[in-house]
Here is the input.
Amino acid sequence: MRVLLAPDCFTGTLSAPQAAAALAEGWRRHAPDDVLDLCPLSDGGPGFLEVLAAALPAGRLEAVTVTGPLGEPVPAGLLVAPGEDGVTAYVESAQACGLHLVPADRRDPGRTTTRGVGDRLRAARDAGARRIVVGLGGSGTNDGGAGVLAALAPPHVVADPVTGAVVERLAAGGAALRDLTAADLGWLADVRADWAGIEIVVASDVDVALLGFHGASAGFAAQKGATPDQAQSLERCLGDLAAAATTALGLDPKLTATPGAGAAGGLGFGLMLLGATRVPGSAAVLETVGLPDRLRGSDLVVTGEGCFDWQSLRGKVVAGVARAAMDVGTPVVVVAGQVLVGRREAQTIGVDAAYPVASSPAEVDAAMADPHGTLAARAERVARTWSR
Here is the structure.
């Protein structure tokens, strides 16, 4: 039997390559004669560059130092790959503003910034890129991409006492955006014009809007450390930023409702102000690693992630794999740290079965203590059901 193992990372415990290796180890215990194809994936979040670097042998990884989410320098990478249409650079936003860069006792999405992502856009352009693909996911920020705009502000704007103060507000986190006006952001037209010759692609992990019940603040701020009251306040702050920026640039206010605008704490929206277009992060990776062809040569695909929940249905790896598998008729099995999606919901996106590594609190503790071993054990049990 030919089995394609195509997991995302298990956030906080296993990278995508590590998860694929654990699945393979467990599967081989029961079915040593099955042919396994390991295909680690990413939805644009943590591991985006690692997965793409393995799939693009002509690309080169460059080390850069950027501003982290707390304003401190952090190391990051930049993947630069030549192509028929020129140089494409790949940026993993989590390396500059990821939640993993914020200690648990300092998590405050009202103060964290995406400024480092703007630093990396500059580095990508300086490296000769005419196309920049930015992977979005796993952020510890909720600033609507305001930090990126601050990083790209022209020198004369930064030097001016009035506009320079606005730039500092944009770089200070989401809580500093309250009551911004279009007059404050008139210089954004110069930034947008400066980047008009660069194609920016947002490869986001989710397709949510900037504002609203499933938007950046209401849907995700809590997992970054926000209280319910703070999440409501951040919603207001992002609304003020959006109204001011779209008015200053003469853009349709409905830009806030564009799928992916709310990804990574609204970073998708900030990049769209520069003219970026959005693609599902998982789809961008799936195409690069040649997943459709690998599915055609497989009898079964096993995918997975840390938690298979409602977010998984909004453009993450599991949904992308299931959609691609349906096109070629390959059955799909999910193995996740936890499964919070009902069977009927899973079937609507093309998942045939989903298995949790942990169901009880005790099993969760065991999985966190030994993520590789517990994932391998679950894969062995799944193989007993699915391997011929």
Residues 2-41+289-386 form a domain with the Rossmann fold fold (CATH 3.40.50.10350). The longest helix spans residues 228-249. The chain has two domains: 2-41+289-386, 48-282.
